[in-house]
Amino acid sequence: MSVTFAQGFSAAGVVAGISSVEGKKDLALVVNNGPLDAAAGVFTSNRFCAAPVQWSRKVVADGHVKAVILNSGGANACTGEAGYAQSQATAETVAALLGTDAGDIAVCSTGLIGELLPLDNVLAGAKTAHEALASTPQAGADASHAIMTTDTKPKTVELEGNGYRIGGMVKGSGMIAPQLATMLCVITTDAVVSAGQLQAALASGVDTSFNRIDVDGCMSTNDTVLLLASGASGVEPDPDEFNDLVAAACSSLARQIIGDGEGASHDIRISVTGATTEEAALACGRAVAASNLLKCAISGNDPNWGRIVSSLGTVPPDVAPYDSNKVTVDVNGVRICENGGAGRDRSEVDMTPREVHIDIDLNAGDAEATVWTDDLTHEYVHINADYES
Amino acid sequence: MSVTFAQGFSAAGVVAGISSVEGKKDLALVVNNGPLDAAAGVFTSNRFCAAPVQWSRKVVADGHVKAVILNSGGANACTGEAGYAQSQATAETVAALLGTDAGDIAVCSTGLIGELLPLDNVLAGAKTAHEALASTPQAGADASHAIMTTDTKPKTVELEGNGYRIGGMVKGSGMIAPQLATMLCVITTDAVVSAGQLQAALASGVDTSFNRIDVDGCMSTNDTVLLLASGASGVEPDPDEFNDLVAAACSSLARQIIGDGEGASHDIRISVTGATTEEAALACGRAVAASNLLKCAISGNDPNWGRIVSSLGTVPPDVAPYDSNKVTVDVNGVRICENGGAGRDRSEVDMTPREVHIDIDLNAGDAEATVWTDDLTHEYVHINADYES
């Protein structure tokens, strides 16, 4: 279902011959049929941001987006003016098909960095996708398949508010760092909301979801999260409920990225409590989530708490004040580190579940934060060393 | 030879039964026979620093060290007061054997975090080591073997100044981050120098060596670098020459760590030129060195410049001002990224040598810096996931 769960949206996912994988759906189109065309976006902070990011940032700036075209099979990043011209030509083609302005068409790309797209295939694919547009669950599902790269499964969300709906899709598996760890995401709603409301809801929702997951610590050049409102339900939502629902959609999609992280055999939830501030808790969680040594240990089913506390120890005291002699660490409910030293034996920890819970109590305050990461496996190295490109 | 290359030092490396590896040399003793006992030290900034670090920091504070006892097979980190008592008891035993004060005996440990040492074995080993003390090349070699953990070979250095010598040994293979990426290091000299001179030379030497290598981004709890002067040559060195020689010793040892990084199949030198400041160059080099995706690509012999520039793009503009459209990247002499986009085809790059040279020109200024890292291989994951502990 994904983006077509909300009323007022049609979508398509087609084979355009952009991906090197023969017969793979690699081009998606999402159209907002109104009556509203309110939109908000959040983009990568990478200084080598891709041409489609440069294009779409401008498109979203005025709060209006009529359609989004997305492709896998090529990131169109580090492609200079020629790459930017490709994004623009793609938007112009979609605009002509829809009878609107190119300035209302967002463009997203994902795939290898540094190569131009096969533009003829993209533009022909846009026409094919336009012909295939539908508001059916299948059309939404097709779109969510077309944006996959190393993802092993599509990632979608459907949520119902009081008289309105939210749908969404995301792709992302590697190059996932906690600075907008997303790759490409489109969330749709049929609620009656303004662009300003959308931007506030999205920024807040992203902050506690996509910005709190880490597969490999690598920031992408193409990260884009778009939130589009059609207003087709005719319902003006309660602002708090709407914000919560957008945040829930982001969290669900972020969690699905972790569940499909490249090569991952364990999804790791790191909760830090007892911090002086939420920022302090977040800094500690992110430090632990970034530890290659811990992530290898977890892939070997060892709840190696030494690698947890040695990561905590890298967070500067002014960022996260705590006393190392008061820190406790539970893994899957077993307190294996007590007062900064050995607690119960780590052999007591059941590491068979895919989900691993690391609960760190700094015993320094009342603030907390949760981040997610994956373990580091042979398969991750295989995917990123032995790939064909 | 290692630490016994400089006159006035004796050393030993013995089997003490601390390591779980049957028959492995696991305890080293290095004694400064004078006439001087000047010393300097640099330690990990990890807030969960090990008991021997807490102990040795105090010992070195007054600029005098008579001997250093080092063990592999256990880090004595996160072991609380009982761990500190073990470090102190070890120092007291060595002090009694040498007829000096425990306050002049530094202690270093490396191995698993979170467990106490088998103290009886350590103390008995100290006696065995004391009996084995010698100033021979073999004694120095034995010491360098005794501190190895996942190291596959000992790492030593011998340099000659104008009438004086510098020797040294280091251990380190994993848990190597560019904040004192060392684990354990002892450098000796027979030059006549004060503790103040030693501290200045060591701080400067470490800054451009151990602080510029990164195996896996993980900071250790036990990092210790000691520089000891016996004055036995009777030569007061030219200060600049001495500083350069200490820096050269540190660089040689740091380079050896990279050459023996856990599971590494490529040693990667990342040189950043054209930066506005050395700090900016260093920040860019470290960002690239920390990229798991790039390190996987290199292990697969792919000079994936997209993963280089996407890492550069994570450095904030206020830290390293540059224009992404002016950046060039050469890998092993082939300019595969020009003006922030594709340059020559990456298939032209010969990736067969173990050493890979990544030369990044930011074209923004005249400052430069070089950092080293290793590739990320299946074997790294194997060592850190499937280990026995």
Automatic annotation (TrEMBL), chains A, B:
Positions annotated as active site in the UniProt record: T182 (nucleophile)
Location of this chain's protein in the cell: Cytoplasm
Top-level taxon of origin: Bacteria
Keyword Membrane applies: no
Site (Cleavage): A181, T182
EC main group: transferase
Key words of the record: Acyltransferase, Amino-acid biosynthesis, Arginine biosynthesis, Autocatalytic cleavage, Cytoplasm, Multifunctional enzyme, Transferase
Record GO biological process: L-arginine biosynthetic process; ornithine biosynthetic process
Site (Involved in the stabilization of negative charge on the oxyanion by the formation of the oxyanion hole) location in chain: T110, G111
GO MF, one example: L-glutamate N-acetyltransferase activity
UniProt EC number: 2.3.1.35, 2.3.1.1
Main location: cytoplasm
Subunit architecture: Heterotetramer of two alpha and two beta chains.
Family per similarity comment: Belongs to the ArgJ family.
Function, in words: Catalyzes two activities which are involved in the cyclic version of arginine biosynthesis: the synthesis of N-acetylglutamate from glutamate and acetyl-CoA as the acetyl donor, and of ornithine by transacetylation between N(2)-acetylornithine and glutamate.
Name this protein carries in UniProt: Arginine biosynthesis bifunctional protein ArgJ
UniProt organism field: Bifidobacterium aerophilum
Primary gene name: argJ
